[in-house]
Amino acid sequence: MSIELRHLRAAVAIAEAGSFTAAANALHITQPALTRTVQQLETSLGVRLFDRTSRALALTEDGAGFVEKVRVILGDLDSAVALYTNRSLVLGFSWLLPDPWAQQVIDDVETNSRATVVPRRCDDPIAALNNATVDAAVVRRDVPGDEFVQHPLFEEQRIAAVSTASPLATRESIDWAEFGTLPLVINTLSGTTSEDLWPNHDGPVVTCSNFDEWLELIAADRGVGTVPEVARRRVTHRNVQFIPLVGAPPAVVRFVYRRNRATPLLRVLRDAAIRHSPPPGSATVAQHD
User: Fold this and answer.
1) What is residue 260's DSSP assignment?
2) Which of 160, 190, 254, 269 is the most buried (most CB within 10 A)?
3) How far apart are the C-alpha atoms of 267 and 270, rounded to whole Å?
4) Which residues constitute the domain of residue 74?
């Protein structure tokens, strides 16, 4: 007789429940049926898995070794099945998903695939990808590592963010090169700016690790910063002024996921992300895996 999945689940259930009665209840079968299942398994293996007495039930040495290995197999199997049958995707982002792109993508996926897309803000989207708390992420910087697939989608214009207490707050525009002489506030974890954008920058740099800290440091006039234009439309802070930047390089929006976690549903989300990006000429070329 061949060993089936029901035999493996029965052995693990009994080991975890500590009795045939409790295991049968957990598996929603009768105790005699469970007993027969275990007898079939033991016959196929040629070993006894459980020591049974009228008062106690215990795993034999062979049984303990077998159940330990089967737990791993069943865990991997359940994870693989969930990966392909789960109809929910978590889309990570560190701050301000681009609009209306994000809403168009989510509506497309949910309408056409009967799946649910859950946006989730996280300070470090790449760490969230690594620990599987998100399925994909929208980032605005290059992500190193062959374990990631990243699709450049489109570009966002950068603007300046300055404190209302700064003399710069009354300016109609600021030249990008001028930033190379000013104190900078940089979100090193998920921001769009790094000091190497100004090779000759010799001013002080104040660092932080999320958008909220970055915004408050700007408001406190610890330095100036740059941010995609979407912030001017959606962020309100009485002590921060957003000003056009002249000659600033654009920020590239990227769709990123781990190569080993690409599922059919994730590819649906990826394709929608690419499909709703601006037309050629204002977007970069997408890379497919």
Assistant:
1) G
2) 160
3) 5
4) 5-84
